[in-house]
Amino acid sequence: MAGSGTAHLRGGGALTVEHLTVEFPVGTSGDKVHAVSDVSFDLMKGETLGVVGESGCGKSTTGKAIMRVPPPTSGSVRLGAIDLSTLGADQLRDVRGRLQMIFQDPISSLNPRRTIRDIVAEPLTVRWLDGFPRYPAAQAWDNFTPAMLKLWKNKWLVLLTKIGLGVLLGGVLLYVVASAVGEPDQFGRRDGGAGADLANQIIRGGGLLLAPAAIVGIIGSAIWLLLVFLMIPFKIARSVLVAMEKKEFAKEVDEKVFTALEEVGIPAQVSMTKYPHEFSGGQAQRISIARALVLDPEIIICDEPVSALDVSVQAQVLNLLEDLKASRDISLIFIAHDLAVVKNISDRVVVMYLGKVCEVGQPDLLYSKPRHPYTRALMSAIPVPDPLVDPRSAEEIDGELPSPIHPPSGCRFRTRCARATEICSTAEPEIAEVADGQFVACHHPLDEKDWHLSERSVPVTVSSDLDGLLHSTTPEAPGGVK
Amino acid sequence: MSNAEPKGNSERLLEVEGLSTKFLTARGTVTAVDNVSFTLDRGKTLGVVGESGSGKTVLSRSIMNLLPRKNVERTGSVRFDGREVLNLSDKDMRHIWGKEMAMVFQDPMTSLNPVMRIGKQITESLRIHLGVDKKTARQEAIELLRSVKIPEPEKRVDEYPHQLSGGMRQRVMIAVALACGPRMLFADEPTTALDVTVQAQILNLLAEQQRDRFMAMVLVTHDLGVVAGRADEIAVMYGGRLVEKAPTATLFRSMKHPYTEALFRSIPRIENPSHTRLLAIGGRPPDLVNPPKGCAFADRCPRVQTMCREERPKLVNAITAGHSYACFYPTGTPEGDKALEDNIVAGVPAALEVQITDAPSGI
């Protein structure tokens, strides 16, 4: 329950999360919601890591913090060797192609006003805009354009041009004015008298100063004009190239979207132009999965992907995820509140409670030999499709989740734990290995004599009997033969 | 509270016979409930199981007469405590709603009034039906909150729904439904929006209240696991029709309808090793505007034969008492198994899916 520590990290994972903490401020009171507190885990390549716990245990916040939406308060998330917290927005967007997410509510996570093709193509479009344009010619020009623009907008050049042109204009004006006043001499030239003399002197005296200024002004404005005229053909040529590229890209995207949709079992030919409301929940979830797949991610974070679905559709989506994992060699982080679902799909399970890790281990081990009282309680809450199991015999966790604003001291589960003692309120349990590959953060972990409960759901003889009857080809089902 | 003693003479509380509900829409007539019959005794629980769109919610609303008056056509008969209630007006139904029949809805977030204190929402029906004065009603509300295990009911009674968690809100919904001591409770997916741990709490609470008050209950759900240990009888619905009905133990012991079996096998079971392949039911439920001529499940069925597409199977009785099913090639019979084998050979996708799932399973 509520434990810290990193004993369960294996090192060299595809994704390593260490000391992840997410806190949200509460109004202006200075209080904080401790959504996730010092959580660590790692995900190996090709593995499915299940994260399980009640609502409010921080499992979804953990998933989102890995994606940095929003970034965690502290702690590190490493994708291979890259520490995501050191990346800027652009680099992060690059990395997110390797790290995708599927959300709980399939219908509301698809934009109702866009077609399926556009929805699934969106990640590709974003990626394309990042590396845009891809034609070398257009690229070269695009590199050149900013340099030109920079020169065009260079404040010294602008200033010099302005000064030069100003001086030039001023000089000419002064000369014209000066030569217009006074009496004309025999050649018809006017002598402006004292004023004109002064102007002549200024112009001649300042000539040394004015000539360079005038030259700079002329050169500056020439460059300016040249740039303006150059930009026009550049612009035109570029838009032609871009149009060509867009066409090619659209074709490429169509192909990718088509493949992705077919891969998740959506008939692409007829679905591309449809809108999300035309699909059922299970199909919409498949479309979400296609959207996550289209960038060829290494890791997909599935945030309660089946909680909103019927059991029969849930089975479809779970089978699909298993198939994809096998065919594409992706790693999954599978977040859910239903232990049976998590157990079915995971290679390793992390049990969370109120922002802390309780137990980590192989699913089969965790279920047959739970060490944490909370794991066992979660397990006993699963409805068993067997009328011979009395659901009321199950251990029920009493009460509600404590407030994450003021979490209990020591072990956070102690307020609802039957085994809590003095030490649980004073010291926080550290995660420790209790069996091979099984880690628990508890002062009083369960042992052999407590495991009878897991047998509750396995009335061995009856269950296998029932199974035998269901699958058997013999017609000996008691009672029911017509 | 007040109805601990069964009223009336007969054991039978609810009799539904040939109930059909049709919605007249722009696209055509949607037959959401198609010729459904069942009976429910006092204090018993009927589990109604089916996927989204199978008509289970419309069924419970049809019985309670909660559907709009316009463009809805209901035929058949619903007798509650010996009295025909199908064609009662809203005015007459008002004496039955809350007092005789009550409903707990799926989504506790949207079914409570967000701008009304929960105490008032609970006492509303008490004041109207039982004519209780304000003070007593408040006391009653506190008692009800206590009975649904809400801590500090004196404080909670003056709070608004947004101050409560999802599980707490569902408890309040139950308190509202129980306020006038109904004899019949419809629980329409009461736990689908909740976590497993809270689900267990709420289902236990419902069972406890049902026992204490001797209520009959219709528990509507898509999860066979939810009703397994809690219902006396289970009715499986598909495409608006009842496809199988049996006492719970019998149903689980010898499922007959391939749809029931598929529903059962799509549940991930905790005792199975991880990565056990689940049986997914491919495809979608049928379009209820143009329902298929034959069996509604035919397109998704691993045992489908030509006959299934041409003729609609009727509910027939199995040997065991109370067990009936609507299938030509039921599970666990020679003809059913032969149909499955034929389909595997013929490469029917649904049958292949069963074969794949069968292979690694078998605990």
Low-confidence stretches of chain B: 1-7
Low-confidence stretches of chain A: 454-482
Distance between the termini of chain B: 46 Å
By oligomeric state, this entry counts as heterodimer
Can you count the helices of chain A? 14
User: What number of domains of chain A?
Assistant: 2
Query: Biggest sheet of chain A: strands side by side, in what order?
Result: 6-9-10-3-11-12-14-13
Going by CATH, the homologous superfamily of the largest domain in chain A would be P-loop containing nucleotide triphosphate hydrolases
Helix content of chain B: 25-40%
| Largest sheet entry of chain B | 8 strands, mixed
Mean pLDDT reading of chain B? 89
- Radius of gyration of chain A, CA atoms, in whole angstroms: 36 Å
Describe the structure.
The complex is a heterodimer of chains A (482) and B (363). With 482 residues, chain A is an alpha/beta fold. Chain A folds into two domains: 1-113 and 283-482, Rossmann fold, CATH 3.40.50.300; 136-251, no CATH class. Chain A is built from 14 helices and 14 strands. In chain A, the strands form three sheets. Chain A has an eight-stranded mixed sheet, sandwiched between helices. In chain A, helix 3 (116-130) crosses helix 6. In chain B, strand 1 and strand 2 form a beta hairpin. In chain B, helix 4 (118-129) packs across helix 5 and helix 7 (166-178) packs parallel to helix 8. The termini of chain B are far apart. Classes of the chains: A alpha/beta (482), B alpha/beta (363).
Could you give the topology of this structure?
The complex is a heterodimer of chains A (482) and B (363).
Chain A: E1 15-26, E2 31-43, E3 48-52, H1 59-66, E4 74-79, E5 82-83, H2 89-96, E6 99-102, H3 116-130, H4 136-153, H5 155-180, E7 183-184, E8 190-191, H6 193-263, H7 268-271, H8 281-293, E9 299-303, H9 311-328, E10 331-336, H10 339-345, E11 348-353, E12 356-361, H11 363-368, H12 373-380, H13 422-426, E13 432-435, E14 438-440, H14 460-471
Parallel strand pairs in A: 3-10, 3-11, 6-9, 9-10
Antiparallel strand pairs in A: 1-2, 1-4, 4-5, 7-8, 11-12, 12-14, 13-14
Helix pairs in contact in A: 3-6, 3-8, 4-6, 5-6, 6-8, 8-9
Chain B: E1 12-25, E2 28-41, E3 45-49, H1 56-64, E4 72-80, E5 83-84, H2 90-93, E6 101-104, H3 108-111, H4 118-129, H5 134-147, H6 153-156, H7 166-178, E7 184-188, H8 196-213, E8 216-221, H9 224-228, E9 233-238, E10 241-247, H10 248-253, H11 258-265, H12 306-310, E11 316-317, E12 324-325, H13 334-346, H14 349-358
Parallel strand pairs in B: 3-8, 3-9, 6-7, 7-8
Antiparallel strand pairs in B: 1-2, 1-4, 4-5, 9-10, 10-12, 11-12
